[in-house]
């Protein structure tokens, strides 16, 4: 059972805007998730750092989801997270992709669903949300 954190709707994030997420990672963390999309069924970005889950170790897995249909998994091997540590992640929304800014690293994930606005954000798993800001 994955613990569900806060859910945000009506964010209204458009290209050129950024969402910054800060929080604490559980000391015994296995994985956590951040979802960004139109709503809970249309996820433009499923961001899933895995310390040890589903056969992955210290890997960030990203994907998109359209209703019940997942896309192809995208893996990043740069893993700047520590169990029991804090995390700050900024998601920059662009026309064709979302840029994920991590400490010392960034990568792009394509906007596969061609979302013009990102209204929905949630967190799940071994992560406690402390602050959310957007500009």
TrEMBL record:
PROSITE patterns: GALECTIN (PS51304). One of its GO terms (molecular function) is laminin binding. Pfam families: Gal-bind_lectin (PF00337). GO terms for cellular component: extracellular space. This is Galectin. Keywords: Lectin. Residues 5-135 form the Galectin domain. Signal peptide: none annotated. SMART domains: Gal-bind_lectin, GLECT. InterPro entries: ConA-like_dom_sf (IPR013320), Galectin-like (IPR044156), Galectin_CRD (IPR001079).
